[in-house]
Amino acid sequence: MSAEAVAEPQSGAPGWLKGASGPLFVLTILLGSFLLFLVQPMIARMALPRLGGAPAVWNSAMLIYQALLLGGYAYAHWLGRVPVRQQAMIHLGVLAVAALWLPIGLMAMQMPADAEPAVWVPWLLAASIGPLFFAISAQAPLLQRWFAAASGGRDPYALYAASNVGSFGGLIAYPLLVEPGMALHAQSWLWTGGYALVFVAVAACALLLPRKVADEPHVHATSAPPSKRRVAHWIALAFVPSGLMLATSSFLTTDIVAVPMLWVLPLGLYLLSFTIAFATRRGVAVVLTRFAPITILLFGGLMIAGHNANPELNALMALALLFMVAVALHTHMYDLRPEADRLTGFYLAMSVGGALGGVFAALVAPLVFDWTYEYPILILAAGLLVPQEWLLPFFRRLWGEDAQGRRVRILVVALIVALIVWFGVSKGSDLLGQRQAGILYLTLALIGLFTVGMRVPFMIVLAGALFLFGGFRSIAMSWQGDLRTRSYFGVYTITDLADQKRLAHGTTLHGVQLVGNSERLKLPTTYYVPGSGVGQAMQALPPLYGPNARVGVVGLGTGTLACYAQPGQSWRFYEIDPAVVSLARGPFRFLEQCRPDAKIVLGDARVRLNEEPAKSLDLLVLDAFSSDAVPMHLMTLEAFATYDRVLAQDGLLLVHISNRFLALEPVVERAAKLGGWSAAQLTYHPPLIEELNEAATSDWIALSRSPQKLAQLTARADGWRRLEGRPGFTPWTDDYATILPVLRSLNKDLP
Q: How far is 53 from 51, CA to CA, in rounded Å?
């Protein structure tokens, strides 16, 4: 075969299509990745009202996504055994068969009451979108192999940068454009149209492939296979950024600040890191990789310290740390890539590492750790894997070439770091002020700068910084056993003070119980004091519904509301997190003191309320919202119809909307108006004497089908006002909902 034949493989495509081969492959890969990242949040929105938000549901969903993604990459790797023309015919057949599942959506079936989510949810998702997800997930590695064949052996790895541009586009487009602008049925047809475009584009790419096996340069595996150690290295380099991306999201919302849609930023930076690492122009990747060890050293210890006095600055440092690590490790992985004929195996190893990192951070860590320990662990792993280069020639000369001399210098560094850490955690330095802590930090950072280029002493300094500036404190809290609890919903921390016990869920106060005699133990606090909207409703129960009122509460918390219970009343709590139930029945004593026989129903509230008898409650309290955790499916018109079904004809619904970031009044107002509810709102500002007993400002909305009952409630105290709507606000439904119109930062006129 001549050189010309290698450079210009023969295809059956028209000339105009051959000239557009590069852009065509880029566009096809980009579009496929865009659809892949569009489908996951779309299906989540479709599934939430039906399946609920229980961890077993979404852990199962994550596992099936990872399994399908791995399956797609394994399928692309397997196709490498046959000539590329046959690969194209097979893949077009797979795409055509998968199209039978269009338009995309969930199968019309309900989860049986006795079904096991770990089995039923994966089966439902696999049966609903499995073939489509599988076919699209194979696009990136498969088309890169085809590009190598169609272009005469050009390096195909740069196309992976286009793949991640598409992924990033899908990630940003869904919450910012698709979800706010389209109902779910329209989103489904949008995705269906995109799938049709992908099919046409893949077919066009297939026309560019060589007609003869002899014209396939760099396609069949002729290079030496990678060693097991090299494959393990690829997996590790993919594992750490994937895990760190999820750990950063958890750490930010747990120890720094909880902001709606914050998860978009870590995932977006993670995807962009691939674009830089796999780009043809290497300048940015090389520079960022060179300075990644400094970023790890300078920001790692500060992040673990968990100071939230400047949450925005800390969030920026955490994101910068993630981005630098991801770029450095993905660049190193690119530098270790095999020849193009081994491309699909490389991507399969990468997907295995990414999946393992996700499973570790999202599934294993919440079970094994009581705090976000995966974050410092992954920072240490990043320090171990990141390429190390001397910052200055002087540092190389300082360490010298003599092995014995280097060992002595490493020992000196270890002793100095040990002394600094001992001083920092010793009893005499417990009261270190900000200035003294800053001096220790700068000392360690300065030592660390001299170690960049030498992995062992660098790791000693990094480990010392992580231990000193947060690791020791966290380990000490874990050692005490009962101060911190973790579940798939986050980290719960108990703080024991002289006169009270406090529960924080991440950075959000979740409940306070006063300590002392029996009367203090029973005193409602925070958002639930007697003057609050829910406090007034609880006190009005006997005159409104008699001595045998039936009460339901969505969201248990510390169990504070139980201390409004009176003899003869029937109480039911709906709680999705078993860890919260353990806290309310353990360290916190509201239930023990006031309603030890209260029924607690575990699971997603909307799903469980659908199982309750009609007209079985007189008062339903909806208190499942805190910080950025707003379950949309509990605020849709269909959800309010569920509450209406379970409430008596003249029953009361109390909705807690206190929120630092979201103004939920328009959501409730539209649901009330369209559902035929009468509604009133109370914003309660406690007087100073109540604030001393941990009362907090709160916003409650009361709704009832009976205007008379609502009037009886609101007449008991001043402050209730008519619920104001917002002209043009689109109500939330199971088919359409978006938080953008209610974000306070984007809507300055919101109350």
A: 7
Give the tens place of pLDDT for each residue, 419-477: 988 888 775 444 445 667 778 888 888 888 888 888 999 999 999 988 888 777 788 77
For the record, the structure tokens of 279 come out as 């780009």
Please tell me the distance from the alpha carbon of residue 540 to that of residue 98, in angstroms, as a whole number: 58
With 50 as the cut, is the pLDDT of residue 650 above it? Answer: yes
Residues 734 and 633 sit within 8 Å (Cβ to Cβ): yes
In whole angstroms, how large is the CA radius of gyration of the chain? Answer: 29
599-602 and 570-575 beta bridge pairing: parallel
User: pLDDT band at 103, cuts 50/70/90?
Assistant: very high
Residue 115 has pLDDT above 70, yes or no: no
Q: Kindly tell me the sign of the dihedral angle through the C-alpha atoms of 144, 145, 148, 151.
A: negative
Compare 678 and 445 and report the one with higher pLDDT: 678
**Nearest-angstrom CA–CA distance, 40 and 371:** 27
CA distance 311 to 176: 24
What one-character DSSP code corresponds to residue 394? Answer: H
Tokens representing residue 70 in the block? 């791995």
- What number is the average pLDDT over the span 564-578? 93
Q: Which residue has the tokens 């993905």?
A: 330
> What is the four-CA torsion angle of 693, 696, 697, 703, rounded to 10 degrees?
-100
Respond yes or no on whether the N-terminal peptide bond of residue 103 is cis (omega within 30° of 0): yes
> Are 465 and 553 a contacting pair, CB within 8 Å?
no
What number of other Cβ atoms are within 10 A of residue 144's Cβ?
25
Residues ≥6 apart with Cβ < 8 Å to 552: 571, 572, 573, 574, 609, 617, 619, 620, 621, 646
Strand order in the sheet with 500-505: 484-487, 490-496, 500-505, 508-514
Q: Highest mean pLDDT range out of 116-120, 144-148, 556-560?
A: 556-560
For the chain, the 3-state helix, strand and coil shares in percent, each to the nearest 5, are 60, 10, 30
**Cα 595 to Cα 565: distance, rounded to the nearest angstrom:** 7
User: Phi first, then psi: what are they for 653, rounded to 5°?
Assistant: -120, 120
